[in-house]
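Purpose: get a first structural picture of the assembly so the mutagenesis plan has something to point at.
Setup: two entries, given in the order below. No constraints added.
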Amino acid sequence: MSAMSIPMPLRKPAAKRGAAPVAGLFCALIVLVAIFAPWIAPYDPDALDPLNAHAPLSARHLLGTDDLGRDLFSRLIHGARTSLAGPLIVILAAGTAGAILAITAAWFGGWFDALISRTLDVLFAFPGLVLAITVAALFGSGFVTPVAALSLAFVPVIARVMRAAALRERNLPYIEALRVQGFSGWHICVRHLVPNLAPLLMVQAAIGFGYAMIDLASISFLGLGLQPPAADWGLMIANGQPSILAGFPQQSIAAAVAVVITVVAFTAVAERLATRFGGDHAPVR
Amino acid sequence: MTRASLLAGGHQPDPAALAEIRARYHLDDPFPVQYWHWLSGLLSGDPGTSMVLKEPVTALIGARIGNTVLLVAYAGLLILLLGVTAGVVAAVGGRRVDQALTVITTVLMAAPAFVAAILLIWLFATTLSWFPVYGSGTGFTDRIHHLTLPALALSGGYLAYVSRITRTEVRAELAADHVAAARVRGLPRWTVLRRHVLRNAAPPIVAVSGVTVAGLFAATAVAEQAFGVAGLGSLLVQSAARQDMVVVQALSLLLVTVFVLVNMLVDVLNAVLDPRLARAGAV
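Result (C-alpha cells, whole complex):
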C-alpha cells in the first residue's frame, strides 16, 4: 500500500472518542518497549536454537519460536525499534521540509509559488511505494534508503495541505497589521505563521505516521528494506510466509497483528488531535 | 560504483563487458545526448534491454502485463461492486446493518495489503483449499481462480473506503429536498434511490473510486509478490532487488503514466456525470 498519495484514510469516524486514551496509552507503551527493548526482551533476538524450531506458544517462549528457533516475543520487541524509528524519521523529515516549502511558497507567491507547486505536483504523481522501490534499485536496500525515499514521497502530501492553510493564514488581517508595523517577513513567518500553523502540521504528521509505517512495512515485506537477520515487523511477516504453508503461522501473524494494532492506535490518537485542533476542515486545493 | 557497473546489475564485470555497456548506453556522450538517446528510444517503443535477464524490456512487460491488468480489473470490480453496494446498504438498511458494516469496514481499513495477504494465505493454505495461494495460472478461468486471493488482498482497504464514502454521500442525498419531493410524488423507493439519490451521489464516488483504481497499479507490487503472481508489480520488486535499472526505470515510468492517465480519465468522467464541473473549468 502506498503513501498518502493513495488516499485510503485510516481515519475512523470521530465518534470513537472513547478509544483515544486507551490508544494513547498503548502508543506510549509501544514507544517504551522500543526504547528499552534489550532490557525487556527475555532472549537475544538473534540467538539461534535450531533444535527448538517452530516451538508452540508456551511460558518459556510466549509467542513460540520461528523456523530457526529464535524467540518470537523477543524479536517482536526488538522489531518495534526499527518499525517505529522509520516512520518517525519520515514524518520529521517530510514535515519539516513540507512546512518550509509550503510557508515560503505561500509567503512569496508568484512564480516562486508556481515553481514549488508544480514540482510538488510532479512528485505527487509518484506513488510512495513506486518511488521507494525505484530508489531501492538505485541505492540498494537497507534502512536508510526506503526511509529517505518515503520522506521525499511524503513531502508533497504534507506541503499541499500546509500551503493551502498558509495561504489562508497569510491573507488574514493580522498579517497585514504586523507588516504595517514594520515587522520583517522572517519575523512574521517564524513568530506568527509557524505557531499558528503548528497544530495543523502536528495533525498531518500524526496521520502520516500510520501511512508511513504501513509503507515501510510493505517495503520490508517486499525484501527491499532491512535484510535478514534484522528483527523488523515487515520483514518478519515475509520471512514467516513459508512457515505458514508448513502450518506454523505464528511469526507472520504476530508481526502482522503488531503492525495493525500500532497503526490503529497511532491513528486513533491522530484522529483525536485532529478533532481537538480543528485540523479536520477539508484541505483547500 | 560507476554508472556502467550499476547498469550491469551492481557487479564488477570484466573491462570488455563494461566497455560494451558504455558504448551501448552512450555513457561517454554528454548528458543531454544520453538523455536524447533514451527518450527517442522510449518514444519509438524501445525502453532498452534488461542487463540481468538479457531480454528486451518490452518482452518482459508484454509477458506480464496481462496478469496485472486482469488483477487490477478484478480488484477494481470488487471495490466498485462490493464497496458501492455495501455503502448503499449501510445508508438505507437501518441502524443494525449500518453498525455491522461500520465494524467490518473499520477492520478492513486497518489491514494493509500484506497483512490481508498473509491472513488469506493462512486461511486458504491450511484450512480451506478453495483458491490456490501461489502462482498466476494459465487460461482465463484458471487465471481468475489464481487471482482471486490477490484481488481480495488488494481490494480490502479500498473497498472499505469506497463503501464509507458511498454511505456518506447517499445519506446526504437522502436528506435533500428533491428526494423528499420525489417520495411525495409517490415514486417507488427503488426509482427514487436509482434516479434521484445515486445519480446525484455518483460524482464524488466516481472520483474516489478512480483515484483508488489508479493507485491499484502501484499496490499490485505487494499482492503479486505475496502470491507469486508474475505481473508488473512483482517484476518491479524483483528487478529492484537485482538492481536491474533499465527495467525499473521503464516500469516506474509506465506505472506513473497509468496513474496520471487514470486520474485524468476520472476528471473527464466526472465532467460527463456533472456538466457543472466542466463549465466551472475543473477539467
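Chain A has one domain: 19-39+62-276.
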